[in-house]
Amino acid sequence: CKYRVRWYSKGKSYLPPKELYDVAIKAIESRPLTISALLRPGGKKATETPTLEILCRALASASTTLTQGYTNPKPGQDKPVSPPKTNTKPDEGKLPPPPSSSFSMPLFSAFPMGRNPCRDGPRGAAKADCLKSKANPCATAKVKPCAKSPLPTKPPPPSEIKASVSPTTAKAPPQTSPSDVDHKDSSGSAKKKEKTCSQAPPSKPQEAKIINGRCKPKKQCDSPFPVLPLKQSLASYLSSIEPLLTAEELEKEQKVTKKFADNEGHDLQQLLEEEAEHCSNWLTPRWTRAAYLGYQAPLTVFSKFSETTDFLTFTAKAIYGICEFKQLVDQNKIPVVKMGKNDLDNSQFYKIFGTIRRPGRFCDTLQQFSDADYVVVVHKNNYYKLPIYCESGKLLNVPSLVDALQEIIDCPIGKGEPYGLLTHDNRSNWAEAYAALSCPHGNADTVETIEQSLFLVCLDEWGEERIVQAHQLLHGGGLRQNSANRWMDKTIQLIVNPNGLAGFCYEHSPADCQPLAMLMDFVQQKVNEENYGGESSEPQKDVSSTLLKFQATNECINLWMCQAMRNIHRIASQLQMNVFQFECHGKCFIKAQGLNTDSYIQLALGLAYYSVHEKIPAQYESAHLRIFIEGRTEAIRSTSNESKAFVLAMQSETASRHEQLVALQRAVDAHERLTKEAITGQGIDRHLFGLQQMALENGMPSPEFFQSKGFVRSVSFQLFTSQVATSHESFMAYGPLLSDGYGCCYNPQEDKIIFAISAWKNSPQISPFKYGTAIKKSLNAMRRLILETGGDPVGEHPCKCEEIRP
Questions:
Q1: Which position among 508, 585, 624, 687 bears the catalytic label?
Q2: Is residue 508 annotated as part of the catalytic site, yes or no?
Q3: Which residues contact 325 (CB under 8 A, 6 or more apart)?
Q4: Is the CATH number of domain 300-535+551-575 3.30.559.70?
Q5: Pairing of strands 35-39, 3-6
Q6: What pLDDT digit, counting tens, does each position of 37-96 carry?
Q7: Are strands 299-302 and 633-637 parallel, antiparallel or unpaired?
Q8: pTM for the whole thing?
Q9: What is the pLDDT of residues 297-306, one digit of tens each?
Q10: How far apart are CA 315 and CA 410, in angstroms?
Q11: From what superkingdom does this record's organism come (predicted)?
Q12: What's the rounded Cα separation, in Å, for the pair 705 and 700?
């Protein structure tokens, strides 16, 4: 046998379940290869040649603690090498693991595959503690026992799986636009599937299904995503890490990089180039799975409501506006934006409506329901199905929507059970709870109705401070506020609070932020129109919503609920947010100096970090790749030798004003060059990510290069930043990438710059408030430098700026 899988229920040698499952698929589908397994249930030896179903049953019934990592046995080697021992006991005092870095892909698992949450309780939760509370009336209800969790998704038939990435065996697929969304209509039936990329187990992304039932974009960009020459990327990599390392560390990193280029790097480059020949974008399906299934990115917009009717009218107009925007998307009326001579790809606009991220044991999946004719409204943890179209197929007008929302607000039913909290939990925990919650004899119909809605509308209860309002969009504010009034798997959640808060919580696995930014601008413009959506050429009947009922849940769900409560409380209490406006000037002042606005702000962020922490940070900024088919993002490594020189010049007491100005101009030019390289496919991070994935997908050991000090430091971004520019006063916020880093998103307006900074409380040196103050000081220092060296004061607000002393 080429593949030998050894399974010990009590031993030290093992394969993690994901790898075992993938090896099984590859062996069974790649006939005439066979696979044998040594199963030791209960310590008794039993040998058989299993089918995939038998293997899956063995995985599901295993009762050992599984951790990551294993070493494939060499030919003739009988026993796999045991991986390092790891302590799998959770630390109650720590935060849940933050999103992984750009290149690491840990498989987070909450508990062993065979763990029975009804018997053992969820990992990290004491069963006795969870069962003390009797507040949930469902806890004592007589219900059916927990059903076994569903097995992993059945793989495609052998004809659709490539056993090798070799060009001699892999055939080029049809030239169709790939999609990361499993597309279904409102009835739940799957549309026709077309292959878009070759697939070589064990760890490749799942086959994608194209979106049918809609008009194709006006003009689809036809540029495939390239694979850069290895020599070029490694040279740029060494240049990017130079400002972060000492001379001795840099010399060592150069040796490691050269060794990688001459050995594993050459082989991985060939594999990646072969893969790129068979699909239009080798990056997007891999990057979607690795990076975008980790966090939610909310955008917010503020207004004020004096009465409940204003609150409901605003909500109705927003619903109407979102639906109108969807009609523009379906009718191909979203303008194609040009960048130079290139058309930007608009495919992401088709992926944000009716999309759900379903939890999975090892990896989540995306499904889209394109024909949804209703939204789900959540109020006081109760879910209501609200139709949005009348019998003629036209949108319900705003007065009809207001009446329906008023009916929901006036519903005498009390607070519902907080099932929405489950969607906030660790994805592995939620996957297990989901299997029990949505079982056929339970609440499958209710869950399905929520998932197949066009989007969610969350009518929250009153909240106070503006900083707290930012938390409302990220996680709902915690247990005592609105966290349960959510369903975090939906791509779009419109959140409206009577205190005037309105915004979106955006699960951005299927698409980046450009579609939502355009949607938000469109909606905000429309809701300010006095009679928007109020006129109709035909009489419309009264519309009533339908309460979606959850049946009494069993002990299994209650235990998962207990764990979810603990986790959301921990996250909500540890996350810090600082949202503020820098009002001295905006992009008008920066442009008047002949400087690039984004580069200028990036330098201010780096200067502020140094002034607080006295070290040069690894600084990340996201850049779009929309000039390529299905393009997502690339990293701009904003830290450069030029930016470091600028920071040191500004901190120097001996540098002249002229020297500081020259350093500023050089740093801006360097960042502009890095930005241009990133958005034209010449960035290095996604290329290195692709090489790392080739090693993973082909069962090769991870090269030393990816564990080197320089590489790890360069991808451990203390500053994780992005610009989301909108025409209205709004901002975007997300959690920080590292426990000791910052998340920073900004929106440069003509006369101001809006910042949203996040950080965790677990590090006493990290404070979004100190950092926010430092950003203001850095921008003021840069402004003083420009004005004192003959700059143009146009666009500034003198009364809102620090006085420049002679």
A1: 508
A2: yes
A3: 519, 522, 523
A4: yes
A5: parallel
A6: 333 333 333 344 444 444 444 444 332 222 233 333 444 444 444 344 444 443 434 444
A7: unpaired
A8: 0.69
A9: 332 333 334 3
A10: 16
A11: Eukaryota
A12: 14
